[in-house]
Amino acid sequence: MADPKQEQRDRFRAEDPASGPMTTDQGVTVDHTDDSLQAGERGPTLMEDFHFREKITRFDHERIPERVVHARGAGAYGYFQPYQSCAEFTRAAFLQDPSVKTPVFVRFSTVQGPRGSADTVRDVRGFATKFYTSEGNYDLVGNNFPVFFIQDGIKFPDFVHAVKPEPHNDIPTGASAHDTLWDFVSLQPETLHTIMWLMSDRAIPRSYRMMQGFGVHTFRFVNARGQGTFVKFHWKPKLGVHSLVWDEAQEAQGRDPDFNRRDLWDTIEAGAYPEWELGVQLVPESEEHDFDFDLLDATKIIPEEQVPVQPIGRMVLNRNPDNFFAETEQVAFHTANVVPGIDFTNDPLLQARNFSYLDTQLLRLGGPNFAQIPVNRPVAPVRNNQRDGFHQDEIHRGTNYFPNSLGGGCPALADPDDPAFRHYTERVDGRKIRRRSPSFADHYTQTAMFWHSMADWEQKHIVDAFRFELGKVGAKEVRARTVEQLSYVDHALAVAVAEGIGVPAPQERPNTPQPTPSPALSLENNRGDGSISTRQIAVLVSDGVDAAQTIAVRDALTEGGAIVELIAPQDGTVQDKDGSTLAVDRALPTVASVLYDAVLLPPGGLDSGNAAADDAALRFVRSAYRHGKPIGALGASVDKLADMLPDELRTAAEGDSTVTESGIVTDRLSAGATAQDFTGAFTEAVAAHRHWSRPALPS
């Protein structure tokens, strides 16, 4: 039988009108489209690169009106406050005075899908922060990965076209598991480091509030003396870095496609304000070339063990927007929105973004006056001679040119002694060339470092993710080529992936990297401050429940900051063992275990007398167990829980009281014990988030 996908590919090649050499829109033949024109191999991108500008401009204008990428987002207002003055490194005013709170707006987003896609897809997440500083707006436009897929911005249209839905059928939405993305990856080994992050649990965050953020690029701090220091930016969530697992992420897409944005909105409305710490990695300019990678390469990180992250301040989000369109949808970020004391480097991806963002906003927001939209408006005064244009809201008076005498010479230039923005003085020379610096050439060492830094369970999830993604790829040659690329990272990884997708295992490479692991990369080492603040805990109740014990444990967990919901077979109330009623929060058919961080079975919680309801409750518990979530049981519910546990855990659970490393916490409440005696151990299990050491459930 003919392969329909192969026939489709053959037909595409035969009918493709662009079968000759690549050209610009003006018909000029192009012989290189992988590197921007720059002054020397590590120099800045040149404005005269008409091919780069045309390619980016055409890409930026492809969609109206939603963003081409990062279309689905959620935002919130808050403030940033430095811990101490950073004057030694930067003159930026908002990083000087610990008593000053700078207003911020943050937008979190997915990348691939449109506005109507789901939150819990496997994807990179945007983490963009607008600081409304006294010196003007500063935008830290980052992601939840510290690295990016490509090294030069001229490749950005190619990457996004590859990861977006396939052009012939516009499938899949919000997903990277398809032929064109993996075809691109298999041919561009520079993507592998970020692909490894994408295949990890980092790509499916439990919450925006439990997600790291990174500036990705190497920027430059400049102090009042004009001295420069290279800087990498890190956002670290106070609650720790926590993720979903793939099958619960997929179920959550059906149960609640707004899972992450609803979580952010609800917790801010409840007053449980999310918080992040801003940290920096600082590298003196004299040490720029001391690493075995290039600081200007956006596909590389500086391992924290080499250059520790120094905390410099905290950010709290404490207010939801009033109108999604006016604020979250119209907010405009731009990597070139910097303030005195923060400047750029010659990173070719950053140089491209500094052009691309403004160009995009001119189209999306209807012209050059988008900075007058309230969410984009700086708190610093705006004085210039720029006039008119689409959507002009200001009523200007006086002259509109400089220099002038009729307007009193206003607005005048800043005095040389005033703290105006001045670009960092840096020598730039070199031949005009399209060539990647040889210092960007190693695509495998840091990819291998990430892999070897993962805990066993994280590595298993990565292998499973590769198998799922590549299993959706129809072109066997793309599958095989991707596995070949993985063999340059780690042979065991490549073999494990190959076994799951039906391609031959690759040969072992003699020079596979064996880098020093970076423990800071593992989720095992990013669990947070040990609190259970905002953790969602489901308490399963039914008629006959011990209401007193249930209320006692609920109140104790709530006092610790958790969000506790009583879930029953039906809405309304249940009757407790003494005949009184207990109000419930949700009905079991409307929720699922994937929407909660832990589950608790109070005395009588699984004794509704309704076999179907009890079976649904047990499925709820089994799902929580399979996903490594903490499970607690009290009183007679211990026996119900023990019946479903593997033999290794059943014996312990059947004892009087037990706390296991597997996150199973039980207490029979014998000898006059109360639920209060149980909550400390259960709180500890919930704070750990996941427990992957537990044995598999019996079939």
Automatic annotation (TrEMBL):
Keywords per UniProt: Heme, Hydrogen peroxide, Iron, Metal-binding, Oxidoreductase, Peroxidase
Gene Ontology biological process terms, A to Z: hydrogen peroxide catabolic process; response to oxidative stress
Family matches, as InterPro entries: Catalase, Catalase_AS, Catalase_clade2, Catalase_clade2_helical, Catalase_core, Catalase_haem_BS, Catalase_immune_responsive, Catalase_large_C
Sequence position, cross-link 3'-histidyl-3-tyrosine (His-Tyr): 334-357
GO CC terms in record: cytosol
Cofactor(s) listed in the protein's UniProt record: heme
Reaction(s) catalysed (UniProt annotation): 2 H2O2 = O2 + 2 H2O
Domain Catalase core: 23-410
EC numbers on record: 1.11.1.6
PROSITE patterns in the record: CATALASE_1, CATALASE_2, CATALASE_3
Kinase keyword on record: no
Source taxon at top rank: Bacteria
Xref: CDD domains: GATase1_catalase
Active site: 70, 143
GO molecular function ontology, one term from the record: catalase activity
UniProt binding sites for heme: 67, 107, 156, 353, 357, 364
Coiled-coil ranges (or none): none
Family the UniProt entry places it in: Belongs to the catalase family. HPII subfamily.
Function in brief: Decomposes hydrogen peroxide into water and oxygen; serves to protect cells from the toxic effects of hydrogen peroxide.
Stated name of the protein: Catalase
Organism expressing this protein natively: Streptomyces rimosus subsp. rimosus (strain ATCC 10970 / DSM 40260 / JCM 4667 / NRRL 2234)
Lineage, highest ranks first: Bacteria, Bacillati, Actinomycetota, Actinomycetes, Kitasatosporales
